[in-house]
Amino acid sequence: MDNIMWRMIENGSYVGTSFIDACFSPVALPYTIIMIILLIGLCYAAWKAPRWVRPIGRLTMALMAFQLIAGYTLLVDCYQRAGGPQERWTNLYLAQGMKPVICVAIIGVIIYLISLFISIAQKPRI
Question: Which domain, by its residues, includes 49?
Answer without folding.
Answer: 2-11+19-122
